[in-house]
Give the backbone structure.
Amino acid sequence: MCLVTALCSLALSAQNIPPGDDVWDSLGGGSTDVTLTSADWLALCGASVPDTAVQLKGFNIPGLGTGDTSVERIDAANLPGIGSTARISIQLKALSLVNDGAHPCSPNTLRVKADSHQEKGTMTITKTSAAGGTFFATVPVNAVIEAVNSSGAVIGSTTVSGSLDDESASPWSYNPPSSGAPVAGPWYPGVDPVTKLPVRVCRIGKKILPARHCYRPRPKCKAISPVPVDTASAAAIEIGTDIDVIAVETCTLTAQTTTN
């Protein structure tokens, strides 16, 4: 326990961020999409169509609660004081998305997962106050997309590569969100350090074909055996017009027994 307020503040302001994994919930409803080439669609299901965007949504990864995306922070971030900045290496670790609506391969399901080989990207973290700050990231993505029929058989696949390198700043906090899944601190990305509320984070890529990935910190979800389900809804979060708010979205875990 800190006995002197000044010493407590000093300890907090000098706190560094250790390496670790950031697990996110991807947002559907038009918030996450990727453009596939005509060759991709042909490889997936034999469809002869021009380049076409497909909307995606998260499909939870076993062991990660509602999480469908995991990014590893490879290095520690040294943030000795307010105004300091650290640039660290990051790497996509896991990805699990499915189509969110109609597409050229319907009624087959499109399933997206991380390729076994991933390039390293960078994350730049800035401390703007004793409570937290902002970050932005460049995330290279090598993904395998599969078309799966109603029997669960893969009928076609393609590999896409790109980089989500939008450099818009997103908030992070030393303190956990007032609502959300429990995560070990002292790093809480996607959490406003002032309000302690989770916010939506989006990364946009345009180097090859347009792509967009919007996600949020994992909400609290109850697991009801044997199928994990939560009947509660995440409340709409109002934190001002300068930060994208999270729309009301039901917190539901889809039972999943395999990552194949």
Q: What stands out?
A: Helices lie at 5-13, 38-45.
